[in-house]
């Protein structure tokens, strides 16, 4: 496969830039159990990773016959933000990747299914928010969440780069599907979701960790 053209890079947020997935999954699992759902962290991951919280309520009703209270999403975010402020850690290697792209004049953006207030907390906690000002895009900004490509198309527009000349980096099956559907070269970054799942979702390349992601980008990006 020939090297892709790289004129912009769009990152998912959770599980790519910030190590939120395990914490958020634990919070969601505990909350669903509190509401009488027989869940564990593996089941929660398999059902809901890469989706939106808004989709969890209908899924719980359909699959388990459990109706969640009207304010459950707000409660989940409150618990999640508290966990982030207390326990969130940055991914080792992310600053080096962002520095490399900056040094080579490659614009960057974020395309996430999560809401802006969640990203404000998580990106602020690990000191990354300022690096993406004006280019932080949420599924709440567009008509359709991932696996639809809308949020990645918006992120490319914010950067002023054709999506076909962008790299998308995502760690979930829905995110990979969104990246591929957008027309971007899509890297599946392994976090909680196994590489085989990301590959089956259509990822053009797999990075087993952030070091391998750096190596891929360094091989593709022409020196400034």
Sketch the topology as an H/E string, one letter per element. Answer: EHHHHHEHEHEHEHEH
The major sheet is characterized as: 6 strands, parallel
Average of the residue pLDDT scores: 92
* Total count of helical runs of at least 4 residues: 10
* Parts with pLDDT < 50 across at least 5 consecutive residues: none
Report the strand count: 6
**Helix percent band:** 40-55%
Structural class: alpha/beta
State the end-to-end CA separation: 23 Å
The order of strands across the largest sheet is 3-2-1-4-5-6
The general outline is globular
Question: What is the percentage of strand-forming residues?
Answer: 5-15%
CA radius of gyration is 17 Å
How would you sum up this structure in a few lines?
This protein is of the alpha/beta class and 224 residues long. It has helices at residues 21-34, 41-48, 56-64, 72-87, 94-103, 116-125, 150-159, 173-182, 195-200, 210-220, and strands at residues 8-11, 108-112, 136-138, 166-170, 185-189, 205-207.
């Amino acid at each position: 496969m020939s090297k892709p053209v790289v004129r912009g890079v769009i990152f998912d947020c959770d599980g790519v830039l910030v190590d939120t997935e395990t914490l958020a999954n634990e919070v969601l699992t505990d909350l669903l159990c509190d509401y009488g759902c027989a869940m564990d962290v593996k089941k929660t991951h398999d059902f809901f990773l890469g989706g939106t919280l808004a989709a969890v309520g209908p899924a719980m009703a359909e699959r388990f016959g459990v109706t969640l209270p009207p304010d459950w999403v707000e409660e989940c975010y409150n618990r999640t933000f508290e966990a982030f402020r207390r326990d969130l850690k940055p991914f080792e290697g992310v600053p080096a990747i962002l520095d490399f792209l900056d040094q080579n004049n490659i614009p960057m953006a974020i395309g996430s299914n999560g809401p802006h207030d969640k990203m404000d907390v998580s990106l602020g906690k690990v000191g990354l928010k300022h690096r993406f000002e004006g280019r932080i895009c949420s599924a709440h900004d567009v008509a359709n969440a991932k696996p639809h490509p809308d949020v990645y198309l918006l992120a490319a527009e914010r950067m002023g780069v054709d999506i076909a000349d962008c790299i998308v980096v995502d760690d979930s099956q829905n995110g990979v599907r969104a990246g591929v559907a957008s027309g971007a070269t899509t890297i599946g970054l392994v976090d909680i979701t196994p590489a085989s799942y990301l590959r089956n979702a259509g990822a053009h390349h797999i990075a087993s960790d952030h070091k391998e992601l750096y190596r891929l980008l360094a091989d593709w990006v022409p020196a400034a």
